[in-house]
Amino acid sequence: MTGNLVENERGSSPRQRIIPALIWFVVFCLWFYSFGLPNNQPLFDAYIYGDSPNHAPAQRWMAWPLVPFQLLDLVDPPIDNDGAPWSWSNLFQRLPFIGIAAFVWACSLGIGRLTLRGFRLHTLLDRAERLFFAGCLGLAEVSLMMLGLGLLGILGRWPITILLMGMALFEVWLSWHDPLRQQDRTLTTKSAGKSTLAVDATSRSSRLGWLVIGIVAPFVFCMWLGAMSPQVDFDVIEYHLGGPKEWYRQGQITRLPHNVYTSFPCLTEMLLLTGMVIYGDWDWGALAGQAILAGFAPLTAIGLFATGRRWFSSSAGALAALVWLTTPWVYRISIIAYAEGGLACYLFSAFAMSLRLVWDGDRSDNNEATPNARPSMSGTENSQQAGLPFTCGLLSGCAMSCKYTGLLSVVLPVGLLVACSIWRSATKPNRLRKMALIGGLFGAGVLLAVGPWLLKNLVETGNPVFPLAYNLFGGSGRDAIMDAQWRSGHSRHYSGPVEILSDLPVKLSDVVANNDWHSALMFGLAPIALLASWRKKVWVLWSIVGWQFLSWFLFTHQIDRFYVPMFPIVALLAGCAANWLTSSSQAGAWVGGTLIAANIFFNAWMMEQQRMSGFNAGRMDLQAVSRIAVSPSLDWINTEYAAGRLPRNTNILCVGEAALFHARFPYVYNTVFDRSLFEKWFGERTESGGFRLRPTDEIRATLREKGITHVLVNWMEILRYREPGSYGYTDFAHPDRFEELKAAGVLGVPLSLPDRASFVPVDEKKRKQIEQWAPKLGISLGDHPGCRAVQVFPVRP
User: Fold this and answer.
1) Burial 160-182 (b: 16+ CB within 10 A, else e)
2) Quick check: helix, strand or coil at residue 427?
3) Ramachandran quadrant class, 9 (left: phi over 0; alpha: psi -120 to 50; beta: rest)
4) CB within 8 A of 643, min separation 6: which ones?
5) What are the helix (H) ranges across 377-496?
6) What gap in Å lies between CA 611 and CA 605, rounded to an integer?
């Protein structure tokens, strides 16, 4: 393997490049560990310093003395008297969720293989590639099936189960009679006759592969345990799970005008809904859906291995999978039901498929023979195949079906790669015709994948990309004020080019190192791939990474998890670099291997820190932990409603509160970007542009019509929305307004909630905000300032 690499390099030998590579890796690690944890810095400071006052912010390296000892907590967690009981026997509680996830994944693989067979691509792919692309396509098709059944109002367990099983069993029957099985056996047998160098390389790759599997297995195990945990993240319980819950309960997918986020493309949310439908319950079924989503991480790892093996070496692919699965960010997006796990998988799959068009026919610079790979076709022949560009479009459209941002981060650059491959391979007289043909196939694939979501929005709102592009398409239920609020909350806030350029190095630093859940292996190793070889492949991959960063920096509101989908490409580069570094010299093997192992241990420690990396119920009793995840106010209302201490006809209007997935009582709400129901039902505009209460009789009539018995107001959420740079909130919702409603006899005295639900401590910044906006909310909690967090007002008859 090393010999092949040397032949393909220009200039200095690998041994001469090892020294600068190791210097870079060491220096980067020192720089990486000089940062703190910006998302959890106060918690990290308390973790490192305890109660010691007057200290500088803690840095990552300060945690190293704790790492070896606290990793033992993964095997034998300390007893927490305030937490839920845990036991290895509690793993049996997860078996139904694991079973549903395994069923959906098995059926998805069968459906995906059937799709590859229909496109005649299964003969162009090796076994690992077939597994990867079949998984990606199959899950997308399951998602679209759920959308179709949901729109038809057929959200039942048996229709989806029979449909999935029928298609998967048909593929099993076709596979059993497929001559490709014999071809696989023949290729494997022929590999036994390779040269000594190839056999040695294969033997090393095999040993490394088993080592990687042994290392990543605990990471994947912890990811799946974390995924099968009740969710506590705001975005997840507000709309990633909140929307599917409402669709499940009403038995049909319809527009939810009070939750604008549910008009987004919802590829991953449909998989959450699949878990709910098959399980037969929205609450516990969500855990099954979350287990399905967690599978995107190992699926991406399979894709990294397959792609690395095809274009670089089996060892590079295995190490890329290692870097990916041991990254804390991957753990985090696996245990929290975000859309980024699916988006990362589809981003990588779309680029991996497009590279077949760009690179096929130029395999002379492979590092290692790949005995299981299928014979390659020339670039021109690839371009003539309808399956490849169409599938590129499908996978790109799937990325956009996860999030609208996939249009910029995936559809456009993959389309450009496909166009470049055609331009380079086609002869001049036929170039435009082939560009139109292949471009049409690519575009058709994109529309087939994301088109149903765009069509749904077009029918429901008149805007295919609702709530975006309001100035162009408009949108039912929106107005210019709401659109301005949306754009303000989802855009960059730069005053000009100078500020953009000055912030560029800051954001670049954030992306490569200064974030709680990064791994030093990503950008510590990826640049070394440039030293390993002058191949164009490395530069193409780096150009993809560069575009991903720029599209995040220039076209999003720069939330950190939004750049995570680029990490599989970075991991592929890191895997190539790690393989070259550890195989080119003993110094690289010892120094590089030691640094890689140390960083994996640190990443495992970071994963173990629940308060910093995300809530993981692990081996806790699910019945007990289900209450821990619920906010104190919702938990109290759930308990009171279940015990009959609240009326049976209870229906609560929630003001400010929109994270209601765990609520088990009837409620009405709106998100911050939707029209305020409280303002609409209780207030009206004055000529001066202010607000006043509607006539009391009209308010009472509206509340009777809507069946509202109580009004819950979450002051902490309203204060959060009103912070500088936040989304904003209607001025109509103010403590004085509720005093007016009480004086008018519309609302009664607030219910007596427990202190843990009613009051929260606040920091100095929040205290000043309260004093300026609503001093009545401020209270004292001993020696610390506090705030009245939640109030529940009964509606007077």
Assistant:
1) bbebbeebbeebeeeeeebeeee
2) coil
3) beta
4) none
5) 379-384, 387-402, 406, 412-425, 431-461, 470-473, 480-489
6) 12
Question: Is residue 580 pLDDT above 90, yes or no?
Answer: yes
Find the mean pLDDT for residues 164-177: 89
- The CA angle 741-743-745, to the nearest 5 degrees, is 70
Parallel/antiparallel/unpaired status of strands 652-655 and 667-668: parallel
pLDDT level of residue 5 (50, 70, 90 thresholds): very low
Q: How many helices (H) and strands (E) does the chain have?
A: 40, 9
341, 294 in Cβ contact below 8 A? yes
In terms of average pLDDT, the best of 357-366, 494-503, 701-710 is 701-710
Q: Does the CA dihedral 470-473-474-480 come out positive or negative?
A: positive
Alpha-carbon dihedral of residues 418, 423, 426, 432, nearest 10 degrees? 100
Torsion of CA 213, 216, 221, 224, to 10 degrees: -110
According to DSSP H, which parts of 71-195 are helical?
95-118, 127-151, 157-176, 180-190
The 3-state DSSP class for residue 693 equals strand
Phi/psi for 712 (5° steps) reads -100, 130
Backbone angles phi, psi at 711, to 5 degrees: -125, 120
Within 13 A of 680's CA, how many CA atoms are on the CB side? 12
Beta carbons of 363 and 369 less than 8 angstroms apart: no
What predicted TM-score, i.e. pTM, was given to this entire model?
A: 0.93
pLDDT at 375: 43
533 φ, ψ to 5°? -165, 155
Given this model, what pLDDT does residue 376 score?
A: 43
Task: Please state, in angstroms and as integers, the Cα–Cα distance from residue 664 to each residue in 247, 368, 630, 637, 660, following that order.
Answer: 15, 57, 11, 8, 9
**Strands 683-685 and 778-781, bridge-based pairing:** unpaired
pLDDT higher than threshold 60 for residue 624: yes
Residue 667 dihedral angles phi and psi, to the nearest 5°: -150, 160
Q: How many CB atoms lie within 10 A of CB 556?
A: 17
* 142 Cβ contact list (under 8 Å, min separation 6): 104, 107, 108, 111, 164, 270, 271, 274
Model confidence at 649: pLDDT above 80: yes
What's the confidence (pLDDT) of residue 490? 87
Contact 320, 574 (CB under 8 A): yes
SS3 641: helix
